[in-house]
Amino acid sequence: MTYSSSQSVSLGTAFDVSTDSVGWKAGGTVSRSSSFTASWDASAANRSYTLESELGKYKEVCYIVSGGSSSYAYTKYSFVPIKLTGGYSTAGTANFTANYCTGALAAGTWTRNQSNGSAWTLSSGFDISGLVGFDVTSTSNWDTSNALSYKQPTAGLYKLCGNNDWPAYASRVIGHYA
Amino acid sequence: MRPLLAAVCVLALGACASGGQDPGPAPSRIAPGLHSEAAPNQPPRPQDHSKYVAVPSGTPAAVTFGFPLCSLAAGARISAIRPTRVIGDGFSIVEIRLATFDPHAGYTLASPGYPPTPRPNEHDQTALGAAPPACTDKATASEIQIGMTRSATAAGGGGGWDGTVVEYTLSGTKLSLEIPYGMLLCGTSTDPC
Predict the structure, then answer these.
(1) What was the pLDDT predicted at B55?
(2) DSSP output for B48-95
(3) Cβ contact (<8 Å) for B63 and A108?
(4) Higher pLDDT, B78 or A131
C-alpha cells in the first residue's frame, strides 16, 4: 500500500452544540494534503492503513456588541484536523462481508490505483470518543499515486473479494481461500 | 447509450499478440451498447488503472486473464479485441474467448493455467463475432478470457497487454470500449518482477 503527497484526505470535524442541548456533533469535513509519501510493507493480516493527523481543539467565544458595550453570548469548541503529520501506521481490522469475488488467482501481484472506484472510509478516523463521545470519520479515494497491491504467493489458493463492488472498484478488499 | 459493457481486457481473437503492435486510434471509454465492470460509466483519467502481473503455471505454463463484459443493447457484437498498449515481448496469446457462467462462481481476474478450470454451467465460445449476454440477465455472468503464455523466444522478458480495446458493432456502427486493466506476465519488462 502506498500513499503519495498528491492525494488529499477528507477528514471529519466535530463541534460543540451544547447550547442547543445536543452536545457534540460530527461536523463537516475538511480536505488535507501533504508533502510526504508513505509505503506500508506487505502483510497477510487483515489491516487498515492509517495516516496520522494533528487535531486542533478550537475555542470560539462570542460577545454581542451593542451601544458601545458588550455582553457575553456563548463559548463553543470544535475539533478540526490541522495537517497530516507524516506519521503513518497500520491497525487491525475485523473481518467484513465481501460478496463480489473473483475466481482462484494465479500467482502474482494485483495492483489497483484507480481514482474512479469507491472511496474508503474509516469509521474511526479520529478516536476522540473520550473527548466528545463519538469518533469522526476520514475518507480517502483511490488515485494514481495511491496504490493498493495484493501479492498472491501461490497459484490457485486465494481469491479477492470486494465489499460493495468488484475488487477493482470496491471500498474495501479482502483475500479469501478460493 | 452503451451497447457493450466490458470489465477487463481482451486480445485479438484466436490470434497471438506480441510486442510492437500498433494499438491504433484511441477508443472511446464510454461505449454505447457494451458494458464492463472494469470500465465504469465515468470516463477514467488516463492514469486510471489496475493490473495483474502474474507468474504462469501449469503445463504449458500459462495464465488466463479475464474481465466482465455484457451487452447494454441487443445486437452488440464483438469485432476485434486488441491491446491499448503492449509491454514487452516475452508473451504470446493462446486464445481469446467469451465465457458465460453461473454468476455465483466468481469472475476471472487472473487464473492459473489455460484453459482455466470450468465453472458451473460455463459455456465458452470464441470472442470474435460473439454477442455478449444482456447485462440485465442476472442469471448469467459473462466475461472475456485471454489465455497468455510465455513466448518461446523471449520468455524472460514477460510483458503483456496494458489495457484492452474491445471493438464491436451495433446497428451497423463500429464502436469500441477501452478496459483500463493491465494483464501482464512477470518478467524483466514488468513492475513488479
Answers:
(1) 94
(2) --EEEEEE-BTTTTEEEEEEEEEESSTT-EEEEEEESSEE-SSEEEEE
(3) yes
(4) B78
Percent of chain A scoring above 70 in pLDDT: 63
Positions of chain B with pLDDT lower than 70, given as ranges: 1-32, 37-48, 155
Task: Name the pTM for this structure.
Answer: 0.72
Does ipTM come in above 0.90?
no
Of B37, B117, B180, the CB nearest to A166: B37
The bridge status of strand B4-6 relative to strand B34-35 is: parallel
Query: CA angle, A123 as apex, A121 and A124 as ends, to 5°?
Result: 120
- Name the residue with cell 459455456: B123
- Residues B164-177 as b/e (b if ≥16 CB within 10 A, e otherwise) read bbbbbbbeeeebbb
Residues forming a β-bridge with A61:
A75
Work out how many CB contacts closer than 8 A connect A with B: 99
Closest residue in B to A145 (Cα) is: B47
Give the Cα separation of B85 and B21 in Å (integer). 8
Q: Identify whether B192 is preceded by a cis peptide bond (ω within 30 of 0).
A: yes
